[in-house]
UniProtKB/TrEMBL annotation, chain B:
UniProt lineage: Bacteria, Pseudomonadati, Pseudomonadota, Alphaproteobacteria, Sphingomonadales
Primary gene name: ccmA
PANTHER family: ABC TRANSPORTER I FAMILY MEMBER 1
Keywords from the named record: ATP-binding, Cytochrome c-type biogenesis, Membrane, Nucleotide-binding, Translocase, Transport
Superkingdom to which the source organism belongs: Bacteria
Positions in coiled-coil regions: none
PROSITE patterns: ABC_TRANSPORTER_1 (PS00211), ABC_TRANSPORTER_2 (PS50893)
InterPro entries, per database record: AAA+_ATPase, ABC_transporter-like_ATP-bd, ABC_transporter-like_CS, ABC_transptr_haem_export_CcmA, P-loop_NTPase
Ion transport among keywords: no
One example GO MF annotation: transmembrane transporter activity
Protein name: Heme ABC exporter ATP-binding protein CcmA
GO process terms (BP): cytochrome complex assembly
Residue ranges constituting the ABC transporter domain according to the UniProt record: 6-194
Gene source species: Parasphingopyxis marina
Amino acid sequence: MPVIFFLLVATLFPFAIGPDPTILDRVGGGVLWTAALLAALLPIDRLVAPDAEAGVLDQYAVRGISEEAVAVAKIGAHWLGFGPPLMLAALPASALLGVAPEMLGRLEAGLALGTLGLASLAVTVSALVAGLRGGSALAGLLMLPLAVPVLIFGAGALDPIQNGGFYLLAASALVLLAAGPFAAGAAIRALRD
Amino acid sequence: MTASSLILDGLGCIRGGRVLFKGVDLSLDAGDAAVATGPNGAGKTSLLRLIAGLLTPGAGSVTHQGAIAFAGMEPALDRDVALAKALAYWARIDGGGAGDIARGLDAMALTKLAEVPVRMLSAGQLKRATLARTIAGPAAIWLLDEPGNGLDRDAQARLEAAIAAHRAAGGIVVAATHQPLAMDGAVEIAIGGAA
């Protein structure tokens, strides 16, 4: 689903902007990053809430599996489900947007890092809103500001002159990845009270 | 089965700023059973969740020896796969094998439904599947929340037989129910009631 959405944005954008290669080349990388961010948002209401409702999380807890371990597994699974497919989809998408081949390498490397952070953030946010009605709308509001650094530095990492954006992207993705399991674990525990 | 025991000491539960129950004392050894009774909303489920460690006690403490299995109101089975496969997921986590699943399915007369997707099962069949997961597991202490809900007469008899067999093997059973459930010599924990 996220991948189809990602490709949909990449297909629609040239129609809306027009086929001018110079404009597409300038905005293409940024568009793909925005699409990747929104694609990460799509499955957010399915990541934790169904398991919480079905009692699966309780069963893990009774078996002595820590909430943090559950969160790590969910982050890993979510990333596998949307990170690598998104990187694959970025190939046709960048062709559609006329992104230059040398920029594609930076985009792919940036996506590899950025999607890790986004996966961790998505699981955290979906654990936070799991017990709430209308949680998915709130999830979008909660996730977007926290995902903005990844978006800014991800688009910044496309800059061919310097690598600063790339390091900052790595740093912000790492922060999200490091904090995610603990925040999501605490949110899952809080769900029970 | 190694020696199992369950001791509740002055256990109290606070939910939503309200004291549900307090001063619950209980001491169970291998082969013992207890049944929590009380009106709806008295805190029977909360008591089981406290024992399972899913809630933090408002007062008192829970100490237990032996692993716990919690058969709650939610089946916790993947709705999109066959029943045997959904049970196999938990059996793998519990370190069990195909034999354990077959034992659980057989005990609750679900063998014929093993290949049916979980989402096709009726409420009573789901309850039996939840119990089958508990029976298939290695845990010494069974916490059963309304185990008789939606069970037909045959399934009820099978449940009582499974409980008796588990206790004979040195297990402990704590059930919360408002339905009659035949358990010889079970301690009754009356919750709420007059309070």
